[in-house]
């Protein structure tokens, strides 16, 4: 056993593609597919997570702003 501890990695270093049809950009965020469907209803139903590029993540945030605000206030 070596005494060195390897650094923890956050996120995958592989370039995943954005899951939105026709988008060639690389993904920067991975969110629950059920939540992303609220903003993008035509998203395919493959897997539990949806990878989004920076532009589509921004659209997701704008489309779900009211829902997210109400969720925070509901506690």
* Total count of strands: 2
Give the DSSP E fraction (strand runs of 2 or more residues): 5-15%
First CA to last CA: what distance?
Answer: 48 Å
Largest sheet: 2 strands, antiparallel
Q: Average pLDDT across residues? A: 86
The gyration radius over C-alpha positions equals 16 Å
What share of residues is helical? 25-40%
The coarse overall form would be extended
Report on this model:
The chain has 3 helices and 2 strands, in the order E-H-E-H-H. It has helices at 33-36, 54-63, 65-73, and strands at residues 29-32, 49-52. A two-stranded antiparallel ribbon has the order 1-2. The model has no long low-confidence stretch (mean pLDDT 86).
Write the layout of secondary structure elements.
Blueprint lengths: L28 E4 H4 L12 E4 L1 H10 L1 H9 L2
Antiparallel strand pairs: 1-2
